[in-house]
From TrEMBL:
<feature type="domain" description="Oxo-4-hydroxy-4-carboxy-5-ureidoimidazoline decarboxylase">
    <location>
        <begin position="46"/>
        <end position="78"/>
    </location>
</feature>
<keyword id="KW-0659">Purine metabolism</keyword>
<dbReference type="GO" id="GO:0006144">
    <property type="term" value="P:purine nucleobase metabolic process"/>
</dbReference>
<dbReference type="InterPro" id="IPR036778">
    <property type="entry name" value="OHCU_decarboxylase_sf"/>
</dbReference>
<protein>
    <recommendedName>
        <fullName>Oxo-4-hydroxy-4-carboxy-5-ureidoimidazoline decarboxylase domain-containing protein</fullName>
    </recommendedName>
</protein>
<dbReference type="Pfam" id="PF09349">
    <property type="entry name" value="OHCU_decarbox"/>
</dbReference>
<dbReference type="InterPro" id="IPR018020">
    <property type="entry name" value="OHCU_decarboxylase"/>
</dbReference>
Amino acid sequence: MAMASPFSSLEHVITVTRDMWFYKLNVRFWLEAISGRSCSNEYLQMANKATMQELHEWGSMYEEKFGYAFVTCAAGRTYIYLLN
């Protein structure tokens, strides 16, 4: 990123970042990046027990299928958004 700066616009930053993430980093670096994730469960504060169970079940199925925990940016999103 430092070598690509200064950036002329937000679009330029996004393009450089996307190109680096998808074309220059291999999967090993992706896994390293998400392995240090923190689990912010703010979206669960409004969820009832049945919804929490459904989120857990979908997360378990995802991890069983792909071998990794489902990671998403949930900031400002509700549990309904995540289930859809």
